[in-house]
């Protein structure tokens, strides 16, 4: 029997995305966000509050990087979600992490995060449904340690974690439990 819970943002898993931008005087700012993801082959959408420092930086610079945080840097990633760049300007510096300028966009790349998408802003939507940044992915950077022998990203090596909207927890990701477009093949054959 199912129980009604009302309206909540209950999807799982939610990504733990690190949005990195430059502010005034090239100050690095990183924000932890779960309300975003891929919305096309080379497009991302970020649902963000427009009063965030990150939103202002994106408007000013027209670019951002989007990284996957890993378990070894969970503490720093959570810190980026707890502290506002509007209140603590040097929050990135306080994290102890390191950044370099992207070669593709006007945004920083956090060296410690294993996977980074370099994005340019193509559209900002501001309407009754919220504030949304649409970015085009110009390049993907990956640490060699997370690649397999064919040079492809191996999700088991990312040490990524997901956010849970139910209890505000973080959960490790990594165990492969099936193969897309193959695990259901028998059911497809049986349906014909």
Automatic annotation (TrEMBL):
Keywords: Flavoprotein. PANTHER family: FLAVOREDOXIN (PTHR43567:SF1), FLAVOREDOXIN-RELATED-RELATED (PTHR43567). Residues 12-156 form the Flavin reductase like domain. It comes from Enterococcus malodoratus ATCC 43197. Pfam families: Flavin_Reduct. This is Flavin reductase like domain-containing protein. It comes from the Bacteria. Gene3D superfamilies: Electron Transport, Fmn-binding Protein, Chain A. Its cofactor is FMN. The lineage of its organism: Bacteria, Bacillati, Bacillota, Bacilli, Lactobacillales. Belongs to the flavoredoxin family. SMART domains: Flavin_Reduct. InterPro entries: Flavin_Rdtase-like_dom, Flavoredoxin, Split_barrel_FMN-bd. One of its GO terms (molecular function) is oxidoreductase activity, acting on the CH-NH group of donors, NAD or NADP as acceptor.
């Amino acid at each position: 029997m199912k129980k009604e819970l009302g309206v909540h943002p209950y999807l799982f898993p939610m990504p733990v995305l690190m949005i990195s931008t430059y502010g005034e005087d090239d100050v690095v700012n990183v924000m932890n966000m779960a309300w975003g993801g891929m919305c096309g082959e080379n497009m991302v959408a970020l649902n963000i509050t427009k009063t965030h420092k990150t939103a202002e930086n994106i408007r000013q610079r027209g670019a951002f990087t989007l990284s996957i945080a890993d378990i070894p840097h969970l503490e720093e990633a959570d810190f980026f979600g707890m502290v506002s760049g509007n209140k603590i300007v040097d929050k990135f510096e306080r994290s102890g992490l390191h950044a370099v300028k992207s070669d593709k966009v006007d945004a920083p790349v956090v060296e410690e995060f294993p996977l980074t998408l370099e994005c340019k802003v193509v559209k900002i939507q501001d309407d009754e449904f919220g504030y949304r940044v649409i970015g085009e992915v110009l390049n993907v950077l990956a640490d060699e340690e997370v690649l397999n022998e064919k040079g492809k990203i191996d999700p088991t090596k990312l040490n990524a974690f997901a956010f849970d909207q139910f209890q505000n927890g973080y959960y490790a990701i990594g165990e492969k439990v099936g193969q897309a477009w193959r695990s259901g093949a028998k059911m497809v054959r049986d349906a014909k």
